[in-house]
Amino acid sequence: MKAQDIMTQEVATIRGSATVAEAVKLMKLKTLRSLVVERRDEEDAYGLITEDDIAKKVVAFGKDPKDVKVCELMTKPCVTVNPDLAVEYVARLFASTGVDRAPVIRGELLGIISVTDILFKSDFLSNPRLAVLERALADANDAARAIAEEQGETSEAFVKAWEKVQDLEAEATHLRAGVAPKAADANLTFTSPQTVAV
């Protein structure tokens, strides 16, 4: 499954210049826990303001929400997710950055994905990624052996088949180790299933 398969498409946005009081009113109206902060223009980054931001930075200090702007609390740029990113990579991104939701973007805002979406909408219970990967690895091994018997281990077809086996094995090893990306990489945005941009 991909981020686009489980994301929430209806997203509420707010301007950075809006007050926290306006943000809370919109959150209540739409029963949301976060709002995406609109970009000023196409070259600007999206931001995110959450109920935690408001509780910890406004309520906890007794500030008047009518006097505090969204731009003072928001995370900008925020972690974003490519709609084609596999759900397990979204979960890893969340684990490494400490976020629990992120806008889904491909040029423009398409939706938002959260830990709740991952838990309740994805197929990780019935189709865990490691099991799928291990089945694919076994199939790739069988295919590589068949090519080796038919065309030899020096053939170009076998070399490509064996590279696929090695790639699958590397990914399976990584998953078995249960290692999420390093916390030092917390500012990374996963832009596609294979690439990472700073």
Would you mind describing this structure in some detail?
The protein is 43% helix and 14% strand. With 198 residues, the protein is α+β, with helices and mostly antiparallel strands. Strands 1-2-3 form a 3-stranded mixed sheet. It has a two-stranded antiparallel ribbon with strand order 4-5. Strands 6-7 form a two-stranded antiparallel ribbon.
Task: Furnish the topology, listing elements before pairings.
Blueprint: H1 3-6, E1 13-14, H2 20-30, E2 34-37, E3 47-50, H3 51-57, H4 87-97, E4 101-106, E5 108-114, H5 115-121, H6 129-151, H7 156-177, E6 189-190, E7 196-197
Parallel strand pairs: 1-2
Antiparallel strand pairs: 2-3, 4-5, 6-7
Helix pairs in contact: 6-7
